[in-house]
């Protein structure tokens, strides 16, 4: 990915370059849609051409008209604007008048104003002094307010503020100041609500043991493991040409970083018998919903829609070589707009690497041949990984797209970082007496409770299996019974019963272990030589379902998580499962609302949506920082190829390595002996 100010785009889906961001910003300023100083640019990204135009375009042809999509807020007015970059003019601009607002600019503009407002707010200074604390060492945690159908909050730009104490530790999250809370009205730039529910029996949690930095750990440290490194003396097997990634004769795709969605994989094609075949037109994480399960006054609103309220790409973290990504990784810089629309070059926000972890692509040992000959064939697994990490306050999310040589795509998420705790008067469960209040979590340290919460990540998967006209198929696994008197000793077996979803209502799936199914996206107009429609299978892994009441406002806003799988008819504007304007939204522009249109999805251009879910009950091992919790799902070829596409893959051998690592031959000989 180029970061040059003068770089020209070479593909219709390329993200805006720095020069294009500057041009779009200039047009917006000249049209008085934003100002150079105090307006907020929530989104400034490429406005993609129509899908049909993108798919018809070929390298070397004239590029489609270049446009930018801007979502802005100025003087309390939110606008969605299309800027024609070729003509340097506003093509259209609409005022957003419904519910919901733009994302919170966490590090710029709005939060700077919040800090100024609170620094001048005398009641806060008094509250801190009463506790023996100082404002200069207080960490401000700006929180999205959610929506709870409260009339006096409607139409206001609100930021809820939690206060932590950073004295003596970099991990201020583990030192929440109990009972202190503020609501900031950003339009009026004032504190609209302030709570100081001081309880001297609830201490500030201790700082000892909270700092996660290596320099703060008391000896002895753990002995390091011996170094493991993937060496590629001939270089990687993939190439990166601006936004196009090609991995040998296996995969090629377009890659970009989006301020809201993070990494976006587009135009993913797999190589098959001399031809590149389309699999995925566009895939990305479309929304994250993180509801906490403490209904008390200072916690009930913590029901974050992290992507729409903060932005995954906007909060992408620089990746640490050797720790976030292996030694053989290739790192990419990205250009994203600041909250004022200015281009910012962000280094090392994406890494790409080939992974060889000792796994096996396929193998077999034959021991039953008539001549008694033993045959063993095995092929090592190498995959291509595209990774980013986004840091949203206390949590860090690792987001992976992993491509395999056999045509499989694995999408992985990792949850790490720091849990969001609350202070309590009890030191631990060992204290005498009954709890005076419900913990809504578990003790992770003295006077500190890790609050129970969920994580739901909904992916947008615009599969185009050999073309845009696809169908969604559910294949149920059904128990069958053998009739009495049939002369068969078995009583039961299972078989499959498939159905093609005709409408969007047919494609709403709640996963169940007791009613198992398999799920496919097929191209009904293209078949293999055996007559099977070509397709890809969605393979869910361990996930979680929502436990909230359907009428609970957070659930209404995030109604798209009530099912794990949806399929909808493609519509360019239906991009984010939680809707376009998420901040304080009412849930009236979400995936579930679109699904209620009940459009035809049989042999149509369709989008598959899948939600990975986690229930998180914190434990002591989550303190002071948590190890990664992982989840994934797969998109797996299903009658897409005529046979195993890696049948002709050559096995690894000592000869491949001996020229670079002479000791390999000796070690292999010793193992064989």
Layout of SSEs?
Elements: H1 18-30, E1 40-46, H2 51-56, E2 67-74, E3 77-84, E4 89-95, H3 110-119, H4 122-130, E5 138-143, E6 158-165, E7 176-185, E8 190-196, E9 238-241, E10 244-247, E11 251-258, E12 262-272, E13 275-291, E14 303-305, H5 306-309, E15 330-337, E16 343-355, E17 360-366, E18 375-380, E19 383-392, E20 395-404, E21 409-417, E22 421-423, E23 441-445, E24 448-451, E25 453-463, E26 469-481, E27 492-500, E28 517-527, E29 533-539, H6 553-557, E30 565-569, H7 591-595, E31 604-616, E32 626-638, H8 654-658, H9 663-672
Antiparallel strand pairs: 1-2, 2-3, 3-4, 5-6, 6-7, 7-8, 9-10, 10-11, 11-12, 12-13, 13-14, 13-25, 15-16, 16-19, 17-18, 19-20, 20-21, 21-32, 22-24, 23-24, 25-31, 26-27, 26-28, 26-31, 28-29, 29-32, 30-31
Keywords: Copper, Metal-binding, Oxidoreductase, TPQ
Domain Copper amine oxidase N3-terminal: 110-196
Pfam family, one: Cu_amine_oxidN3
Can you characterise this structure?
With 673 residues, the protein is mainly β. Among the domains are: 18-96, Nuclear Transport Factor 2, Chain: A; 106-214, Roll (Nuclear Transport Factor 2, Chain: A). 10% of the residues lie in helices and 39% in strands. The chain contains nine helices and 32 strands. The chain has a 19-stranded antiparallel beta sheet that branches. A hairpin with a 2-residue loop joins β23 and β24 (448-451). It is globular and about 90 Å long. The protein starts with 17 loop residues before the first helix and ends with a helix. Its EC number is 1.4.3.-.
């Amino acid at each position: 990915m180029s970061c040059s100010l003068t770089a020209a785009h070479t593909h219709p889906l390329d993200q805006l370059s720095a020069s294009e961001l500057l041009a779009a910003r200039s047009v917006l300023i000249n049209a008085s849609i934003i100002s150079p100083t105090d307006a907020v640019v929530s989104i400034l990204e490429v406005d993609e051409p129509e899908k049909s135009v993108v798919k018809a375009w070929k390298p070397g042809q004239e590029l489609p008209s270049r446009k930018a999509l801007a979502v802005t807020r100025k003087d309390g007015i939110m606008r969605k604007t299309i800027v024609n970059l070729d003509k340097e003019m506003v093509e259209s601009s609409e005022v957003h008048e419904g519910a919901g607002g733009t994302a919170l600019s966490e590090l710029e503009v709005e939060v700077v104003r919040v800090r100024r407002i609170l620094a001048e707010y005398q009641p806060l200074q008094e509250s801190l002094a009463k506790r023996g604390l100082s404002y200069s060492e207080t960490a401000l945690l700006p929180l999205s307010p959610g929506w709870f159908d409260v009339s006096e909050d409607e139409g206001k730009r609100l930021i809820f503020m939690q206060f932590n104490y950073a004295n003596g530790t970099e991990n201020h999250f583990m030192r929440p100041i109990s009972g202190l809370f503020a609501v900031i009205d950003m339009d009026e730039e004032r504190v609209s609500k302030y709570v100081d529910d001081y309880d001297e029996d609830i201490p500030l949690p201790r700082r000892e043991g909270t700092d996660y930095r290596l320099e703060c750990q008391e000896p002895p440290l753990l002995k390091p493991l011996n170094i493991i490194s993937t060496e590629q003396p001939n270089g990687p097997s993939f190439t990166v040409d601006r936004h196009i990634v090609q991995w040998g004769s296996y995969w090629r795709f377009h890659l970009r970083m989006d301020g809201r969605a993070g990494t976006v994989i587009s135009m993913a094609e797999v190589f098959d018998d001399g031809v590149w075949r389309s699999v995925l037109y566009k895939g990305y994480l479309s929304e994250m919903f993180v509801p906490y399960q403490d209904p008390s006054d200072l916690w009930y609103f913590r029901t974050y829609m992290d992507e729409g309220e903060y932005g995954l790409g906007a909060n992408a973290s620089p990746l640490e070589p050797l720790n976030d990504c292996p030694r053989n990784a290739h790192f990419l810089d990205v250009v994203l707009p600041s909250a004022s629309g200015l281009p910012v070059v962000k280094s090392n926000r994406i890494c790409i690497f080939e992974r060889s972890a000792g796994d096996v692509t396929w193998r077999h040992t034959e021991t039953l041949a008539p001549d008694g000959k033993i045959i063993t064939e095995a092929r090592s697994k190498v995959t291509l990984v595209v990774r980013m990490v986004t840091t949203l306050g206390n949590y860090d999310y690792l987001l992976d797209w992993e491509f395999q040589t056999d045509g499989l795509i694995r999408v992985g998420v990792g949850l790490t970082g720091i849990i969001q705790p609350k202070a309590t008067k009890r030191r631990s469960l060992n204290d005498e007496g009954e709890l005076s209040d419900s913990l809504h979590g578990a003790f992770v340290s003295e006077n500190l409770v890790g609050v129970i919460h969920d994580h739901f990540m909904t992916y947008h998967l615009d599969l185009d299996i050999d073309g845009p006209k696809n169908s969604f198929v559910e294949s149920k696994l059904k128990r069958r019974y053998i009739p009495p008197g049939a002369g068969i000793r078995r009583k039961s077996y299972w078989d499959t019963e498939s159905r093609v979803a005709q409408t969007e209502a047919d494609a709403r799936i709640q996963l169940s272990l007791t009613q198992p199914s398999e799920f496919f996206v097929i191209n009904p107009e293209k078949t293999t030589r055996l007559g099977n429609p070509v397709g890809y299978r969605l393979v869910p892994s361990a996930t979680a379902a929502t436990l909230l009441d359907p009428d609970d406002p957070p659930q209404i806003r995030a109604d798209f998580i009530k099912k794990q799988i949806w399929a909808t008819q493609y519509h360019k504007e239906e991009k984010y499962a939680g809707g376009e304007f998420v901040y304080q939204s009412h849930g009236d522009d979400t995936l579930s609302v679109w699904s209620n249109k009940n459009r035809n999805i049989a042999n149509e251009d369709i989008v598959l949506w899948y939600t990975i879910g986690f229930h998180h009950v914190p434990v002591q091992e989550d303190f002071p920082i948590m190890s990664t919790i992982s989840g994934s799902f797969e998109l797996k070829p299903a009658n897409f190829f005529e046979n195993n596409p890696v049948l002709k893959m050559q096995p690894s051998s000592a000869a491949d390595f001996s020229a670079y690592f002479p000791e390999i031959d000796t070690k292999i000989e010793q193992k064989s002996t």
